[in-house]
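Posted in: Protein Modeling Q&A

I'm a second-year student putting together a small comparison for a lab meeting, and my supervisor asked me to include a predicted structure for PspA/IM30 family protein. I've never done this before, so apologies if this is the wrong subforum. The sequence is pasted below exactly as I got it from our records. If anyone can share the structure token output, I'd also love a short note on what stands out.
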Amino acid sequence: MVLLDRISRLVKANLNDMISKAEDPDQILEQTIIDMHEDLMKLRQAVALAMASQKRSQQQYTQYQSEVNDWLSRAQLALQKGEENLAREALQRKKSSEEQANIVKVALDGQTAQVDTLKRNLIQLESKISEAKTKKNMLKARAQVVKANEQLQGMLDGINVTGGMAAFERMEEKVLQMEARSQAAGELTGADLESQFKALEAGSGVDDELEALKANMLGGSAQPQGQLPAGEQPTSTPQTPAQKTEVDREFEELRQQLNKI
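Accepted answer (user: helix_wrangler)
Welcome! Here is the predicted structure, written out as tokens:
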């Protein structure tokens, strides 16, 4: 028994869940308005039938009231003519018409109350339908907004924001590295040019000094052998011809080496 109850609750829960998921607000609201219009048509028909019955009862009541008046007039006429039996019969018919009129009057009063109630219900239903139509449009608009938000949320859920930002960060780091390499290469190029110009400037001084040395050395070789430049005094004994030949040879080798430079 407990198992059957659990199965029954489970089936009901699943059915309710399926129904809840299958309910489309637009369709449900539209169908509700249609049902209310159908109820309105039925209520109008009921009001029409009740008013028709009321009208017939009113006609019957008027007819019986007319008969009551007619039989009263006839009874009076019979008494004037001395026809008491006939007057009595007229009064009897008058009483019967009054009884019928009273019966119809009770029915007529009930029908009148019923018609009034039906008319009030009809007015209320028409007002509710008008209000429901306004709410339907508002609810449909809100439902569309909710659906749009759900679709947008689904799209956002499908986007890997973290991965995307990580990719942007990686690309930013890569661009920074490229910029750093470019800047370093520019600095290295500038430093290389600077070092080359400094080398040229330093080399010019060496070359000038070398040229001066060569000029001094060449100038010294043009003087007569055995003499020193002006202002200098011999500090040693005069060289022999063999020593002078050796010096000239060494000087010539030095000058050739300098020319190669």
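A couple of things worth pointing out for your meeting: Residues 84-158 form the longest helix (75 residues). The chain has five helices and no strands.
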